[in-house]
């Protein structure tokens, strides 16, 4: 280890300086143009008429209801999909069974189906015109144009994130450590909590953060199933659209800025955790 | 504790990993399962440890039927081929794992756990590495930690899958001696898997030569050298 650190830094790549600077410059321009500029615009637009107008926009009951709705949806959908994602990844990587390939394809389905189509499927399945939907409405449990529908739509579109992060990590780690725990007398649960979970925690964290970002940001599927009823089923993204269509530009961008800040907060949280646990992160990398 | 293997067979789908095999392992013996890759050694060892269940046949530990015992109930100290140390735990926590996993009323107090772990670290002659992580150890050190971790549960037997496979020649020789000493000191019935005939002959009291899911010959190293039972044994053990 230490003797490696003592050797002078030798450049690993042999590309000429020109090409290197060109590539770096190009990436920076791209990042600035397509990631940073839009983000800045959102905040600039939100503050265009001064802080007062921005704060007033945040006080709008519709805006507050949308924020509450989005946070509630994420608080429900993310834990559920974390658990299901772990279960799916576990089943796929630790057991051999028939239909495994099919299950893997199925997990990816929400990625390949357009969110709008996903929303429509839920409307067809649970809407007033279907038998199931009619029965549910008659019994006072409407799904479509109501809270449960938004949860279902969000669960559907965010399902792959956790499982997709976990599967490669769990395949790479194999079963040996878990088997070792079992031979040492640990129960299945104990093995899961003391061996499996610590080994996948970083992948799980990434999966959960991605899942959370999408859960808060989902527009298409939610727009279809929620009916976008102000103050009732409108989420932050759908409310942003409605404000914008009504030329309430400050309100729209203020809400968009809150959404962006929630996303930045998740990124910050991730970086903070990585920084705090850098030593452990290094130790748990493969030997 | 003596181990009896009676007509044990194992199939994976259409692959026959073990044809019915039978074997008696006397209490306290140091036994080598010797054979080329794919001969069924690991499968047999994993069935003994309860990590795999046989398609048919029985396993008896100390005269008692153990075929249906779960992996936890077997209390077999298992050393895995690539050691399978817990990467996110220190060496100390790795060795203490089995003690901490015990039911509350059987679990030793914290001070007692510390005492036992330190004793095991002395036994493997690595007294000062308790606070390190597995990725800060050499291959030979990892192997010895895996051995200590397996011994910590006060196992009824010791099962090792290619314990020297991942090591260079010099370390391999040292650790062979180390395993012999630990075996002699603990008196545990020990079964280890190897594809290296020299290793099996030098280290084991009893060598079980396997090929294609069958046991070709069982005997003391000298017997197998002097009287190979089949052509396969003759060619495989020719040094
Ligand atoms: N989990 C498994 N699934 C399918 N086949 C297996 C499995 N484990 C072992 N086998 C097969 O069983 C045979 C014996 O394997 P193994 O016991 O690992 O041999 P060895 O340890 O002697 O190299 C091989 O043909 C191997 O491919
Ligand atoms: Mg093997």
Automatic annotation (TrEMBL), chain A:
CDD domains: TM_PBP2
Subcellular localization, as worded in the UniProt entry: Cell membrane
Alphabetical keyword list: Membrane, Sulfate transport, Transmembrane, Transmembrane helix, Transport
ABC transmembrane type-1 domain ranges (all copies): 67-274
Main subcellular location: membrane
Pfam families on file: BPD_transp_1 (PF00528)
Membrane topology: Multi-pass membrane protein
Sequence intervals crossing the membrane: 17-44, 65-92, 112-136, 143-163, 247-269
Superkingdom of this protein's organism: Bacteria
Description of how the protein assembles with itself and partners: The complex is composed of two ATP-binding proteins (CysA), two transmembrane proteins (CysT and CysW) and a solute-binding protein (CysP).
Function: Part of the ABC transporter complex CysAWTP (TC 3.A.1.6.1) involved in sulfate/thiosulfate import. Probably responsible for the translocation of the substrate across the membrane.
Name the record gives this protein: Sulfate ABC transporter permease subunit CysW
Organism from which the protein derives: Pseudodonghicola flavimaris
Gene name per UniProt: cysW
From TrEMBL, chain B:
Keyword terms, alphabetized: ATP-binding, Nucleotide-binding, Sulfate transport, Translocase, Transport
Gene: cysA
Taxonomy, superkingdom: Bacteria
Residues making up the signal peptide according to the UniProt record: none
Residue runs in coiled coils: none
PROSITE patterns: ABC_TRANSPORTER_1, ABC_TRANSPORTER_2
Molecular functions per Gene Ontology: ATP binding
NCBIfam families linked: 3a0106s01 (TIGR00968)
Domain ABC transporter, residue spans: 3-237
Name this protein carries in UniProt: Sulfate ABC transporter ATP-binding protein
InterPro entries: AAA+_ATPase (IPR003593), ABC_SmlMolc_Importer (IPR050093), ABC_transporter-like_ATP-bd (IPR003439), ABC_transporter-like_CS (IPR017871), P-loop_NTPase (IPR027417), Sulph_transpt1 (IPR005666)
């Amino acid at each position: 280890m230490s003797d490696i650190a003592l050797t002078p830094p030798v450049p690993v790549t042999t590309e000429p300086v020109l090409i290197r600077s060109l590539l770096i410059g190009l990436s920076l321009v791209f990042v600035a143009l397509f990631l940073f500029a839009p983000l800045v615009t959102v905040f600039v637009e939100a503050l265009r008429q001064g802080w007062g107008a921005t704060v007033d926009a945040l006080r709008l009951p519709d805006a507050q209801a949308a924020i509450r709705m989005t946070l509630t949806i994420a608080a429900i959908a993310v834990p559920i999909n974390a658990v299901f994602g772990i279960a799916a990844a576990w089943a796929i990587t630790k057991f051999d069974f028939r239909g495994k390939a099919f299950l893997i394809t199925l997990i990816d389905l929400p990625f390949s189906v357009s969110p709008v189509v996903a929303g429509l499927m839920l409307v067809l399945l649970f809407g007033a015109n279907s038998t199931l939907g009619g029965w549910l409405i008659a019994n006072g449990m409407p799904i479509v144009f109501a809270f449960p529908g938004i949860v279902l739509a969000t669960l559907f579109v965010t399902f792959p994130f956790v499982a997709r992060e976990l599967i490669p990590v769990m395949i790479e780690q194999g079963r040996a450590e878990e088997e070792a725990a079992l031979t040492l007398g640990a129960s299945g649960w104990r093995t899961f909590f003391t061996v499996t979970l610590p080994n996948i925690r970083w992948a799980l964290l990434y999966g959960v953060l991605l899942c959370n970002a999408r859960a808060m940001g989902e527009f298409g599927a939610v727009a279809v199933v929620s009916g976008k009823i102000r103050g009732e089923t409108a989420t932050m993204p759908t409310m942003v659209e409605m404000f914008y269509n009504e030329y309430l530009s400050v309100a729209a961008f203020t809400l968009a800025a809150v959404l962006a800040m929630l996303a930045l907060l998740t990124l910050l949280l991730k970086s903070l955790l990585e920084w705090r646990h850098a030593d452990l992160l290094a130790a748990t990398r493969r030997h | 504790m003596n181990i009896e293997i009676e007509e044990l067979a194992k199939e994976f789908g259409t692959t026959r990993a073990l044809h019915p095999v039978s074997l008696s392992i006397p209490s306290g013996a140091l036994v080598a399962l010797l054979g080329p890759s794919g001969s069924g050694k690991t499968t047999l060892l994993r069935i003994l440890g309860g990590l795999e269940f046989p398609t048919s046949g029985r396993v008896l530990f100390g005269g008692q039927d153990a075929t249906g015992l779960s992996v936890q109930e077997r209390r077999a100290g298992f050393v895995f081929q690539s050691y399978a140390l817990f990467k996110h735990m220190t060496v100390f926590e790795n060795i203490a794992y089995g003690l901490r996993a015990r039911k509350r009323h059987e679990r030793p107090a914290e001070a007692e756990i510390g005492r036992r772990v330190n004793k095991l670290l002395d036994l493997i002659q690595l007294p000062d590495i308790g606070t390190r992580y597995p990725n800060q150890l050499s291959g030979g050190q990892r192997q010895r930690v895996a051995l200590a971790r397996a011994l910590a549960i006060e196992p009824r037997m010791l099962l090792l899958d290619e314990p020297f496979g991942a090591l260079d020649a010099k370390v391999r020789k040292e650790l062979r001696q180390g395993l012999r000493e630990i075996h002699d000191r603990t008196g545990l019935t020990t079964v280890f898997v190897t594809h290296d005939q020299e290793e099996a002959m030098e280290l084991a009291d009893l060598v079980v030569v396997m090929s294609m899911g069958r046991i070709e010959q069982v005997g003391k190293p000298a017997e197998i050298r002097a009287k190979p039972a089949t052509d396969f044994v003759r060619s495989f053990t020719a040094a």
